[in-house]
Specification:
This protein is mainly β. The protein is built from two helices and ten strands; from the N terminus they run αβββββαβββββ. It has a five-stranded antiparallel β-sheet. Strands 5-4-8-7-6 form a five-stranded antiparallel β-sheet. The protein is globular.
Length: 157
């Protein structure tokens, strides 16, 4: 089983629980929360460092470029390090929707490592690798004790 199949088998039918950020990197938490290394974490994470977007009913509702746009012009803006980006405002509504137990219905990986996740409620998550040089584009982390794994996707060689 290759890494794409491994990830697909885990994510299919699991709940997509929460979206967050670390600087300009977005993470998506899947499954129940557990205690790992003394902290409460989701069972699985997809951490994305390339272009990405969430769509609902064929409209973009949140995208990687939103992290680079100030939300409130009257407040200071420190890209990736504060809560005043368009991303910070729009992720609230998405997380409210995900808190209702939205499941992943389909997982697709392209030959170049792009990801498409189809979720319930007409939500779609997509990544798009936009570079031709080797770099880290995304990683998948499993904190499940019997299935612990950390997969880093650089590129297909």
């Amino acid at each position: 089983m290759n890494d794409f199949e491994f990830i697909s088998n885990i994510l299919k039918n699991i709940t997509c629980s929460e979206v967050g950020k670390g600087g300009l990197t977005v993470w998506i938490g899947f499954g129940d929360k557990i205690k790992a290394k003394g902290k409460e974490k989701h069972l699985y994470y997809l951490v994305v460092q390339c272009a990405w977007r969430f769509l609902q009913n064929n409209k973009i509702i949140l995208a990687s470029g939103d992290m680079y746009r100030r939300f409130d012009e009257t407040k200071p803006f420190d890209m990736g390090n504060d809560d005043n980006s368009v991303y910070d405002e729009k992720v609230k509504a998405l997380n409210m929707n995900l808190s209702r137990g939205v499941r992943v219905t389909k997982v697709n990986f392209s030959d170049t490592g792009d990801i498409t996740l189809l979720l319930e409620n007409g939500i779609v998550f997509q990544t798009f690798i936009e570079e031709s040089v080797k770099d880290e584009f995304w990683r998948f982390i499993s904190f499940k004790t019997e299935n612990s794994k950390h997969i880093v996707f650089y590129d297909i060689e």
